[in-house]
Design goal:
Number of domains: 1
Order of helices and strands: EEEEHEEEEEEE
CATH superfamily: Galactose-binding domain-like
Helix content: under 10%
Strand content: 35-45%
Shape: globular
Mean pLDDT: 85
Low-confidence stretches: 7-13
CATH class: Mainly Beta
Structural class: mainly beta
Number of helices: 1
Bound molecules: calcium ion
C-alpha cells in the first residue's frame, strides 16, 4: 500500500503509481471549515475532527456553506467503484448523519447513516438509499466533501477502497 499524506505542501514522485485503496487521517483534510475543530483523543490516530455547530444546520440554505465543509483531494486512483468507510464516534441518533459527495455530484445523506457507538469504530458510508455508497473514481484529481448535517459526529479516519475489503 502506498501511503500518502494530505494537507502537506509536498507530494513525492512515488505517488504517481496508481492505488486501489487509501487511508486518510480525517484531520489531514485539504480544506477544513471553521465549524470543524481538531479534538485531541487518545482513542484516535493523531487528532480527530468534531463537528461543532449548534443548532444543526438543517436549513438547506445554510448547510452548504464552506464553514460546514471538510474536503479531501483524491488522485492517482485505479479507475473503479470505491466504497468509503469512516472511523467515527456517534454519540446519539441525533448526530449520526452527514452530507457527502464526490466532485459535483448531488449531495447524499442518510438520516440514520451510522450506528451509535461509544468507542470509535469503522462504519460504512451510506447514500440516500441506505445502501453503501459507491463512487466512481478515476486517476484524475477528485474531491470528496463532507458537510455537517447533524452536529456531534467525530471522525478519526477515512478508508477508500475498491478491493471489497474492510478497514483495520
Ligand atoms: Ca485521526
Amino acid at each position: 500500500m502506498i501511503r500518502r499524506m494530505f494537507g502537506s505542501t509536498s507530494r513525492s514522485e512515488v505517488e504517481s503509481e496508481l492505488i486501489s485503496s487509501l487511508y486518510i487521517e480525517a484531520e489531514n483534510a485539504e480544506f477544513i471549515g471553521s465549524n470543524w475543530i481538531n479534538l485531541p483523543s487518545v482513542e484516535a490516530t493523531g487528532n480527530v475532527l468534531i463537528a461543532e455547530v449548534s443548532p444543526n444546520p438543517a436549513d438547506p440554505s445554510t448547510v452548504f456553506n464552506n464553514i460546514n465543509l471538510i474536503s479531501y483531494n483524491l488522485f492517482n486512483f485505479e479507475p473503479g467503484l470505491y466504497k468509503i468507510y469512516l472511523k467515527v464516534r456517534i454519540s446519539s441518533t441525533g448526530s449520526d448523519s452527514i452530507f457527502h459527495r464526490l466532485d459535483n455530484l448531488p449531495w447524499q445523506a442518510n438520516p440514520s447513516m451510522f450506528s451509535v457507538n461509544s468507542n470509535i469504530s469503522w462504519q460504512i458510508l451510506q447514500g440516500n438509499t441506505s445502501s453503501a455508497v459507491e463512487y466512481s473514481i478515476t486517476s484524475n484529481i477528485h474531491t470528496l466533501g463532507f458537510y455537517i448535517r447533524e452536529s456531534g459526529i467525530i471522525i478519526d479516519k477515512i478508508y477508500i477502497t475498491k478491493n471489497g475489503d474492510t478497514p483495520i
